[in-house]
Amino acid sequence: DTEVTQTPKHLVMGMTNKKSLKCEQHMGHRAMYWYKQKAKKPPELMFVYSYEKLSINESVPSRFSPECPNSSLLNLHLHALQPEDSALYLCASSRTGSGSYNEQFFGPGTRLTVL
Amino acid sequence: AQSVAQPEDQVNVAEGNPLTVKCTYSVSGNPYLFWYVQYPNRGLQFLLKYITGDNLVKGSYGFEAEFNKSQTSFHLKKPSALVSDSALYFCAVSGVGGGNKLTFGTGTQLKVEL
Lengths: 115, 114
Hints:
The structure holds two protein chains of two kinds. By secondary structure, chain A is mostly beta strands.
């Protein structure tokens, strides 16, 4: 299995809602990532988990809360989002937690709209 | 700090012609360089990477890239473009000790026309 899967594909939420994005990989990768991408722009790194521990938080607002329950799963909990948070949220994984030379494998993304 | 520049927002090529998408980088030490492609409403797909060794790297779908240390460039090339190659292409760099952090260029929209 060489896929990163993400659910849901689309999500519409109000500013007071709580929702979660889910990401799963079964490639035995030990690093997992969350990115935010606006249309026609490069992905912006949000969080990196390495061996199930949070290793990078790119000063992301606390209304985004990541969780890595095990080496295959990554969640992003959303609460009290703003309309400007509407974007494509991409999950990625890579082979090890410390090798910058490892390519990242991306999921198809969750298209989030905040009303 | 590491950075990547993609000087062209868009590249137009006729099908069957060779294509080049340009990328220059800046990083301390030896770079790890990557190309990714993104089709509409999809995630990014890995095309190829340079770590060390041969300066010409071959990747997926007939793409290749040439690492040039003196010019700090890593241009993406394909000998014969296909309409299906039309997509958004991102160059990315990470450095030794970069902690898995990829820095992406701004992206180049490739349009291949019949």
